[in-house]
Each structure stands twice: as C-alpha cells, then as structure tokens.
Known about the structure:
Blueprint: H1 2-7, H2 12-19, H3 28-33, H4 35-40, H5 54-73, H6 77-98, H7 102-125, H8 129-135, H9 139-197, H10 207-236, H11 243-264, E1 266-270, E2 281-288, E3 302-309, H12 310-317, E4 328-331, E5 334-336, E6 338-340, E7 345-358, E8 374-379, E9 387-389, H13 390-405, H14 413-424, E10 438-440, H15 441-445, H16 456-476, H17 486-493, E11 500-505, E12 513-520, E13 528-532, H18 538-541, H19 546-552, E14 558-559, E15 563-564, H20 565-569, H21 645-659
Parallel strand pairs: 11-14
Antiparallel strand pairs: 1-2, 2-7, 3-5, 3-8, 4-7, 6-7, 9-10, 11-12, 12-13, 14-15
Helix pairs in contact: 5-6, 5-7, 9-10, 9-11, 10-11
Amino acid sequence: MAVWIQAQQLQGDALHQMQSLYGQHFPIEVRHYLSQWLESQLWDAIDLENPQEEFKAKRLLDSLILELQNKAEHQVGEDGFLLKIKLGHYANQLKSTYDRCPLELVRCIKHILYTEQRLIREATNSSSPVGGMMDSMSQKYQQINQAFEELRLLTQDTENDLRKLQHNQEYFIIQKQQTVILDDELIQWKRRQQLAGNGGPPEGGLDILQSWCEKLAETIWQNRQQIRRAEHLRQQLPIPGPIEELLNELNSTITDIISALVTSTFIIEKQPPQVLKTQTKFAATVRLLVGGKLNVHMNPPQVKATIISEQQAKALLKNENTRNESSGEILNNNCVMEYHQTTGTLSAHFRNMSLKRIKRSDRRGAESVTEEKFTILFESQFSVGNKVLWPQLCEAINMKYKAEVQSNRGLSEENLVFLAQKAFSSTSNNPDDYRSMTMTWSQFNRESLPGRNFTFWQWFDGVMELTKKHLKPHWNDGAILGFVNKQQAQDMLMSKPNGTFLLRFSDSEIGGITIAWVAENPNKAGERMVWNLMPYTTKDFSIRSLADRISDLNHLLFLYPDRAKDEVFSKYYTPPLSKAVDGYVKPQIKQVVPDFATANPDPASGTPTYMDHGASPAPVNHSHSYGIYQPMSDPVLDGDGDFDLDDTMDVARHVEELLRRPVESQWGGQQS
Length: 672
C-alpha cells in the first residue's frame, strides 16, 4: 500500500504517466480499493514465458475477483450503492477479459507496479544534484520525449472515450432494472387481459406502456451508436490492452438488451377467442411497442400464426425449442405489420383466420375433447435500427461482393470511395470524409439515386449479377476498373494515346458495363475526345462475349493504362470458324461501331485503319483518305455522344444477312 500512497503524491507529467497506466484493461478504481492486496502478492514469482505458470496466474485472478466482490458487498449508504455496482461490474469485466489468458493479467499488473515504482524513484531523485544533471537532456532527447507525449495524449483521448463507454455500460445495468419494471407492468397488463376474457374489467390501453418502452429504446439505441463509433476510433488508433475484448463485451451486452426489449414488447393486443371451431373465421391483433422508435417499420416484418400443443407451448416458455411441426392448419395465417403514422403503432391485424384442421393426441379413458388445450403462436423476425456507419457497410458490401462473384479480388479503397460518392451524392475523394457518415435503410434500398429510377442497392446488386454471370474472369484479371464515373474516365484517358480504353460500370443502367476510349474528334481536326459506348447488359453478353466484342472493335488498342488489348483478352476470344463446306461459310455476328470503321486500305500504303482485317464479301467503298466516316443519316449516337446498342446490333444483323449470301468465286468455293 506504501507504493500507492506515494504514487498519489506524484505531480505534473509523472502523475499523467501514472494515470495513463489504467483503463478498461485494469481500472484505476481496482488499484485504489485493492492497493494493499495488490502490493502484497508475489507477482514476480510467476514466469510469464512458462505456460505451466498459467495455473498460478488463474488462482491470482480468482483471488482478485473474490476480493473485488467482497469489497463490493461491504459498500453501504447512498454513495455505496453506485460503488457496489461499479466494483461488481469490474469483477465481471476482469473475469471476462482475463479468464482465458490469466498470464496477461499478471503481465499487466507487473507493468503497472514497476512503472509506479520507477516514477516514484525519479520524482524522489529529481531534487538531488544528480537529478539536476538529468534535467539537461539533449535537444534530440527532448524531441523524442515530445513525440512520446503527443502519442500519449492521443492514446489518452481514446482512453477517455472508453471510460465514457464504461459509464454507459453501468447505466445499462441500471436500465436493466427499468426493464424489470416494464416486464412487471406488461405481465400485469397481460393478466388483466386474461381476466377480461373471462368477464373481468377491460385491461386498458397500451399507450402509456408504449411511451415507456420507446423512451428506453431511444436511450439504448443511442448508446449502441456510441459503442459503434468507439470501435472505429480504435481501428484508426490501436492502443495496447484488451480493448477489443471490452468492446466486444459492450456490443454483446447492448445487443442482448435490445433483443430482450424487442421480445418482451411483442404482444398480442387482441386475443383470439378461447374456443375455436374448424371452418369458422376468427381475428387477432399483435403489436410491437418499440417498432416505431427502432424503425422496424422501415422493413415491415411479416407475422405468422401457427397452432401448437400445450406441451410445445410450455417447452417454448422454458426456452426449449422442441417444436418441429404444428398441431393443425390455420388459413390466412400470414400478415404484414403496418405502421400507423398518427398513432405511432406498428401492428398486424389478422381479420380472416380460419382453423382448417386440428391434430389431436390420443385420448385416454374419459378425457373429453375440450380438455385438450392448444396455443396460437405468433412468430416474426425484426430488423431493428435504421442507420449503419459507412465503414461497416463497406465491410458487408465487400464480403457480399466477393462471395457473389466468387473472387478473391474484393473492392479496393478507390472502389469504396466511388460507392460512397454515389451513395451520398458527394464529390470528395478522401476516404476519411466518409468514416463517420451513416446510411439509412431508405438511402440504401428505398430512395432512388438522384436523377435515377433505381436505388443504391439495386444498382450495386446489378453490378454483382453482371460480374458473376459474364465478367468474372476479366474482374479477376484486373481488366475491369468498373467503379469509375464518366468524368473520371475522361480525365484518366485524355492523358493516354489514342485507342486507349477502359471498362466501367454504367451509372445510368442497372447491370450495365460500358467501354470508354480516347480518339480523334471526327468533326474537328486536331482535337481529341473520350467516347462512351452504350452499356452492355446480360442480354448482350448472351449473344456475344465481352472479349469478342472488344476484339471486333479494332480502334481499341490499349487497355488502360498501357496494356495491349490482345495481351489481356486474347485467351478469351472465340476460336475462328471453320472453312467453307460445299461452297458455304457459317455466318458470324460481329460488332461494328460505324463511325470508327473504315474501308480496307491499299496494303502498299501502310496506312493503319480501324477496319476489321477479314475480307468482306460485300463491296466496300475504298476511301483514299482512310478517315473516319461521316455520321450516318440515321445516327447511332445519342445526345451525350454515347452509342445506341440497339442500332449497333442492327448493323451487326445486316452484316449477318450479307454473310448468308452465296460465296463469290473469289473465295474459291462453288455455288450450289
């Protein structure tokens, strides 16, 4: 205890260093109230590198917890009540943290005691001449110490946040007593409801009970969000100690509280009749008292009614999930819960249920049909809350994407920034700008993206489906940038040679991918511009693959940034068709972009062209300039300079029709 008494006399930086030793991994209150016991234990007798010493460490952990519990039990008075709860909580916290790794507790306490003793020695020696000499450190040492001090302050900020979380958890424990009160009130209301069914007075309304439950739900949910923010703070600045285990414990605790609250407030507002007859209609109403505050109504749950035996009902009340089948069949037994904005109630009204059949057990002796009891069980699953932090959503989206596409290549940080820009209608390229942002269910899959008729999730799901079905090998090869908007594509391509292209997912169409490339402007000599092909979809790739379509377009030369396209895509090209048989060749569909296809030049000229190298059976107008064709009278470009795929396919069908004609003598075949 002498060490702790001297440690409390420390001042200035030494005091700050001493305080920073404590936190959730070992609260300073435990050090204070168990100082004598802590300093009397033989911590140095345990070899931390010897796993066989774990048994000794476990005994010390058990003794520490027992000392805390005893100290808590002896607290009396108004102030002692909170301290009793706090010390009891610390006992549970330390057991949960170190029960599987007791040697870590020993390591932690040894470090604390050693550091305290060192700080006391340094403070004692600072007044001596030697201490004065030690104060004249070099500038380099001062800089190092300053860096450590800055790091310590950052760590202390995080520690303070975690202490607030600790206080919140204590508040949760107290709030649990409030849930006991709510349970008592609900049980009394249910009892009055039973009596009312047998001729007693009305059970009364649920509005007051609902207001209490909603207040509790608001408080719990707010604290849950604080825990989530602390988790991401820890990820940005990892600090030593079992912080991760503590946050997991806090998350588990708050989740259990929310689960208990939702379960206990899901009640039958209007009971079905006590005696049911087959082929007779009956009604019932169920209600969730916290549905509005926890935003359950954002994703309206479905409630199912089934009939079970008395034995099954008793087993369920004991949390023995032994029910594997119903004891009968109820018609119209599914109902979606509806939210009433004016009253703030979330309820499901079963208006036309009917008992079609009942399965009875074997009756013995003089047992009557009316002696056999059954219960109608109402079941549902609820999604609570309406917000999630963007980094957490990113983790879920990335995991979903890799699972759906069955690829080890997930979403990069740049991809996630693109998604954040789309989700929040933002232009920021800084990932840190989105770390504290939250997304609601409405933003995710209810409200359409600005200027579109689809939601964020519908767009992303379309990307996953397209990639999974048609683009998986190209995604795995890194050939698809994908998550790039039109302006970004233009900025990237304008610095590259003509013929450079990239693949990006369409902003305007669900499940679409487009090709953007840089080339000369045919209407203005010396000017370059970026072109965007109308998006391909699953329907297009069922006709011709992406690799073959890229092969068809000879004006596409380099995949961004500088990879020859054949180097990337040739292994996926469809093999050439066989030679003519009996004077016929098999037709083939090829993609053509008219404004970027020119006639075959004179080979002697050496002038490069964008025309397909295969000879055409139809006559071609040779142009000596080998320039780009002027726009067709029926142009295939839309107002934004994008190509219309349907018109492009019309050209392809025309080519196919030409190929179906008999082969001319120049092919060396015979016409039948």
